[in-house]
Write a structure and sequence with these properties.
Order of helices and strands: HHHHHHHHHHHHHHHH
Number of helices: 16
Strand content: under 5%
Largest sheet: none
Radius of gyration: 39 Å
C-alpha cells in the first residue's frame, strides 16, 4: 500500500509548529530579561541617589545590641571593683606601685652602671642608697625649721593676730554695713584657728615604717631583676608581632619615665634654688629650707605650687614687720611659677612628654583622692604609662579635617 500525501506532510507541519513555539519562548525570555535588567537599573539608580528602597534596613533606627550593654556594664563594674581594692588596700598597693614606677625611672641608671661592669644587684643597692640619702638630706632641710616653728605656734598665732589689725578699719566698715542692712555680723565670732590638725596631717603625709620598708625592698628587687622580668614579659607571647609590640611598649615606657624623672628633677632643683634666692632677697628666714620645700612640692602638679604660696604668705606675715614686705616673696614666687610653668618646662620637656592640662588635672584629683600626696606624685607618671598603652594597644587613625 502507498502512503497518503497527508501522511507525508504531517511531520513537516509539526516541525514548523515546534520552531514557532521555540521562537515564541525565546522572545518571552528576552522580554523577561529586559524587564529584570530595567528593574535592576532603577534599583541601582535609587541607591546612587541616596533614597532608601522600600522595606530596606536604612529606614530602621540603629539599635544598641544587648551584648554591648552587658559589656559596658561589666567594664564599669570592673573599674569600680579595682578602684575599691586600690583604695582599701592602700597600705600594700601604694608602696608596690610606687616602687614599680620609681624603679622604671631609675632602671637606666642601673644599666649605665652595668656597662661599667658593676653588677646589677650592687648597682640597685647603690642607686637606692643614693636616692634615700638625698631624700633624707632634703627632709632634714625642711624638718629642722618646721620643728622649730611648730614649737612656737602659739607665739606665731598671737603675732599673726596682732599684725592683722591692719584690717580693723575694713572690718568695721563691713560691720556697719551689715548693721544697716539688718543682718547678723559673723565677724564678731571670728577666732583664730586651732592647731589640732597638725598631728593628723603629719600622720597623713608620712608613711608608716612598714610601708617604707616594703617600698625600699621592692624597689631594690625590681631594679635588680628588671632585665629578667622584662625578658619574661616579652617571651610570654607566642607570636612575633605581639613580642615586638610588647618590646616597643616597654622601651617607650622606660624612656619616657626616665626622661620625665631626670627632666623634672633638674627643673625642680633650679626652681628650689630660685625660690631660696627670692626668700633671701625678701628677707624671709631660712631660705634654704623653703627652697628645698619648694623643690619637693613642685613634684606634685598644681597642688604643690599653691601650697608653697600659702607657706610663703604665712611665713612672711609672721617673720617680717610689715604686710607689704611679707607679700614680696609670695608675689615673686607667683611670677617664678608662671614663668616656669609656661616657658621653662614646656621648652625643656618638649612635645613628646607634654600632657594635656585637663588630663593632668583629672589624674591629679583622682590619684590624690585615692592615695593622698604620694598619689599626686604618681599621677603624671601613671598618666604617661596609660597614654603609651592606649597608643600601642588601641591605635586610632585620625582623619584629616578640612581646613577652615
Amino acid at each position: 500500500m502507498r502512503a497518503l500525501p497527508g501522511d507525508r506532510l504531517l511531520p513537516k507541519e509539526k516541525d514548523r509548529e515546534s520552531r514557532r513555539d521555540a521562537k515564541g519562548l525565546q522572545r518571552e525570555d528576552r522580554q523577561e530579561a529586559q524587564r529584570e535588567a530595567r528593574q535592576e537599573a532603577r534599583q541601582e539608580q535609587r541607591r546612587d541617589s541616596g533614597s532608601p528602597m522600600p522595606d530596606s534596613a536604612a529606614e530602621l533606627p540603629p539599635l544598641i545590641r544587648r551584648q554591648e550593654v552587658v559589656a559596658i556594664a561589666l567594664a564599669g563594674l570592673l573599674l569600680i571593683a579595682v578602684t575599691a581594692v586600690l583604695y582599701f588596700a592602700k597600705a600594700f598597693f601604694l608602696p608596690v606601685v610606687m616602687a614599680f614606677v620609681v624603679g622604671t625611672m631609675l632602671s637606666p641608671a642601673a644599666g649605665f652602671l652595668e656597662r661599667y661592669r658593676v653588677p646589677r644587684g650592687v648597682g640597685a643597692v647603690l642607686i637606692v642608697t643614693a636616692v634615700t640619702a638625698l631624700g633624707m638630706f632634703i627632709v632634714g632641710l625642711i624638718a629642722s625649721p618646721a620643728l622649730e616653728w611648730s614649737s612656737r605656734l602659739p607665739e606665731f598665732a598671737a603675732q599673726l593676730k596682732e599684725k592683722l589689725h591692719i584690717f580693723d578699719r575694713p572690718l568695721a566698715l563691713w560691720h556697719e554695713l551689715q548693721t544697716m542692712l539688718g543682718g547678723s555680723d559673723p565677724l564678731t565670732s571670728l577666732k583664730m584657728p586651732k592647731f589640732d590638725w597638725v598631728q593628723p596631717t603629719l600622720e597623713f603625709l608620712s608613711p608608716t615604717f612598714t610601708e617604707f620598708l616594703l617600698f625600699v625592698v621592692t624597689l631594690i628587687l625590681f631594679i635588680a631583676s628588671w632585665k629578667d622580668l622584662r625578658r619574661a614579659m616579652i617571651m610570654n607571647f607566642g607570636d612575633r608581632t605581639s613580642r615586638l609590640r610588647t618590646l616597643r611598649i616597654l622601651n617607650e615606657i622606660e624612656e619616657h619615665l626616665g626622661g620625665y624623672l631626670l627632666t623634672v628633677t633638674m627643673i625642680n632643683i633650679g626652681f628650689g634654688i630660685a625660690t631660696g634666692i627670692i626668700c633671701l632677697i625678701a628677707g624671709v628666714p631660712n631660705p634654704a629650707g623653703l627652697g628645698a620645700l619648694a623643690a619637693t612640692l613642685n613634684y606634685i602638679p598644681i597642688i604643690g605650687p599653691v601650697a608653697m604660696f600659702a607657706v610663703l604668705v604665712v611665713v612672711g606675715i609672721v617673720a617680717l614687720p610689715t604686710l607689704s614686705g611679707a607679700l614680696v616673696a609670695p608675689m615673686l614666687f607667683v611670677a617664678l611659677t608662671f614663668f616656669e610653668g609656661h616657658f621653662i618646662t614646656p621648652t625643656i620637656i618638649g612635645r613628646r612628654l607634654a600632657l594635656n592640662a585637663l588630663a593632668v588635672l583629672l589624674a591629679l584629683a583622682f590619684w590624690t583622692w585615692l592615695w593622698g600626696p604620694m598619689g599626686g606624685f604618681l599621677s603624671s607618671p601613671l598618666l604617661i604609662v596609660a597614654l603609651i598603652l592606649k597608643e600601642h594597644l588601641m591605635p586610632v587613625e585620625t582623619p584629616q579635617l578640612p581646613e577652615d
